[in-house]
Amino acid sequence: MADELSALLAPLRAKIDVIDEQLLQLLNQRAAVALEVGEVKKRLGAPVFRPERELQVIARLQDSNGGPLGNDSLSAIWREIMSASRALEKPLAVAYLGPSGTYSEQAAFGYFGRSVQEQPCASIDEVFRAVEAGAADFGVVPVENSTEGAVSRTLDLLLQSPLTISGEVALPIHHNLLTLSGNLAGVTSVCAHPQALAQCQHWLSANAPQLERRAVSSNAEGARLASVDATVAAIAGDAAAAQYGLQVAQAHIQDDPHNRTRFVVIGTLDTAPSGRDQTSLILSVANRAGAVFGLLEPLARHGVSMTRFESRPAKSGAWEYYFYVDIEGHRADPKIAGALAELEERAAYCKVLGSYPQAR
Hints:
Number of domains: 4
């Protein structure tokens, strides 16, 4: 049986070896051209990273893909190819909510690829500070969850910071209950980020009501604590389990099976139109009847679709609010530009957080 299998596989493996050699040569040819592109960018003072261009490359390949590779696999492969080529010009420094093993890290890799200089940070505030200070080129922060809603600290910092949004990542969130032993024997508490605890609260109440729930700075920090204390369980994903040597006591304990978190990429890059973009704004109006309707009326009149509307207290003590709004399209689009011009005239405060490619 083994001899027959080897005989049948030998010519197929030989074909794969030949193709691998061809791929290696082509990848290095592509990398050499990417270096030439880098020299042109450097001479003209253009940024190394152009997310809209990379998304257009992937979209074009997906449109011409005849299989059997699926489009998601194709996207992941080309993301890493472009990331490695980019790093030949200049490795990007990317800050995210750490430590290693968080969903923020996963979102950062999903957007930039793995050929980056990682900068895990202890808090969302620290991510913003690292990018503002120039210690990191970009930051990746969670902004909203499909179950628990907006991440308030991120919204507050987007209001205060000079940084803008240049991209987004929508990540499926699958929470696992992790322990050293793979069961709950001797476990007395569960540690996780407050959002994760909230996203799993019904499952915990029904299946592990005896566990004390302890909020920590990140799910990865909870996993780290569980890795050194057998009485502690963590709520985290597969990456954290592998990183900290934990076993899955129960998989997929999130209350919403379609749980997703949206992350935004922050920095100073002004992203060009990609053909499938959205623009994020922060607005406020005077406290009078009909003010919000009057503010948003130009969007409807210009045919602009609003995909998100979130209100946050202005913390002035006067019952004033800021409105976080996402609209479809790039601010360079004529109808978006027209609507924004009117919004700026009507609003008491208007900040364009950025126009950037929508998550695919």
